[in-house]
């Protein structure tokens, strides 16, 4: 946790993944209460998704491998929006549940990125979700 906290706090007023993962201004002492959530879904139609699995962990409880995966997320172009496609979403929230960051690996329409803070590589989100699932914790969601 110390390495992730150092990496995150070193970014000043926000977190950065290759210059892309950035938090809005926040209190400097809230890192330990950050919640990391990765949701895996399947696109049923052009714009509708069916959640399949969601993993949620407090940043303070991430395994060293999950901390590294979070620190090494790479930005990418959005994936195609096709029925049946498996898609991922990353959310970072504070202790109150307020969303600080939201990203995905896909987009269905032009301008969708106004609601997102960039696109993360599919394999990175998939790996982070797997690592969150492997971290013991009460509160993993099906």
TrEMBL record:
UniProt superkingdom: Bacteria
- Protein name, please? Uncharacterized protein
Taxonomic placement:
Bacteria, Pseudomonadati, Pseudomonadota, Betaproteobacteria, Burkholderiales
């Amino acid at each position: 946790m110390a390495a992730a906290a150092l990496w995150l706090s070193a970014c000043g007023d926000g977190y950065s993944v290759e210059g892309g993962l950035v938090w809005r201004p926040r209190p400097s002492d809230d890192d330990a209460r950050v919640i990391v959530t990765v949701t895996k879904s399947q696109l049923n139609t052009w714009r509708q998704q069916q959640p399949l699995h969601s993993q949620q962990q407090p940043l303070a409880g991430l395994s060293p491998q999950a901390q590294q995966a979070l620190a090494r997320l790479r930005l990418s172009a959005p994936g195609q929006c096709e029925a049946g496609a498996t898609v991922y979403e990353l959310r970072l929230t504070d202790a109150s549940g307020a969303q600080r960051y939201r990203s995905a690996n896909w987009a269905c329409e032009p301008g969708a990125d106004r609601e997102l803070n960039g696109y993360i590589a599919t394999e990175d989100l998939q790996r982070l979700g797997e690592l969150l699932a492997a971290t013991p914790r009460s509160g993993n969601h099906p």
